[in-house]
Amino acid sequence: MKKLLVRLLLVLVGVAGLTIPAKAQALVVVKIPFQFVAAGQTFPAGEYKISRLNDWDSRILLLSSMENHVGVVLFATDAEGTPHDKAKLAFATVGDQHFLSRIETANYAYTLSVPSTEALLAATPKKGAASSSSGSN
């Protein structure tokens, strides 16, 4: 009976350890004054927090809105461990769309994958171009 109680206690402690989320420390809190795209999703202008999702892979980041708490996981293609004086973000701009492409923090510089300019221009509808569709039931 005593062994059963000890096993049950160990299982409960293990489950509790898995369900308690680790608090992600913010790497950057920044106000972005324009609509932008990150990880294929469009975000409105506003204040955002960027944090590492876990401690064992520095390339996995979490971008979350401070206003509406919507977020997305970002996978950096590269994470350089170089110190920077000031945190900053870089955007690739095609037409009127801004794509988050680089995040620099106090300790790391993260490079994010963005679609190529050619692919973005090809996907952008031309102004004045007529579109039509047809179908039958």
Descriptive terms for the model:
two-stranded antiparallel ribbon, 137 residues, alpha+beta, disordered C terminus, 40% strand, seven-stranded antiparallel beta sheet, single chain
State the gist of this model.
With 137 residues, this protein is α+β, with helices and mostly antiparallel strands. The chain is built from two helices and nine strands, in the order αβββββββββα. The chain has a seven-stranded antiparallel beta sheet.
Description:
This protein has 2 helices and 9 strands. By secondary structure, the chain is of the alpha+beta class. It has a 7-stranded antiparallel sheet with strand order 1-4-5-6-9-8-7. A two-stranded antiparallel ribbon has the order 2-3. A hairpin with a 2-residue loop joins strand 2 (36-38) and strand 3.
Structural class of the secondary elements? alpha+beta
Shape: globular
Q: What is the succession of H and E elements?
A: HEEEEEEEEEH
N- to C-terminal distance: 69 Å
Query: Widest sheet: strand order?
Result: 1-4-5-6-9-8-7
Low-confidence segments, ≥5 residues, pLDDT <50? 8-23, 129-137
Number of strands: 9
Q: How much helix is in the residues?
A: 10-25%
DSSP helix count?
Answer: 2
Secondary structure blueprint with pairings:
Layout: H1 2-19, E1 26-32, E2 36-38, E3 41-43, E4 46-52, E5 60-65, E6 71-80, E7 88-94, E8 97-104, E9 109-112, H2 117-123
Antiparallel strand pairs: 1-4, 2-3, 4-5, 5-6, 6-9, 7-8, 8-9
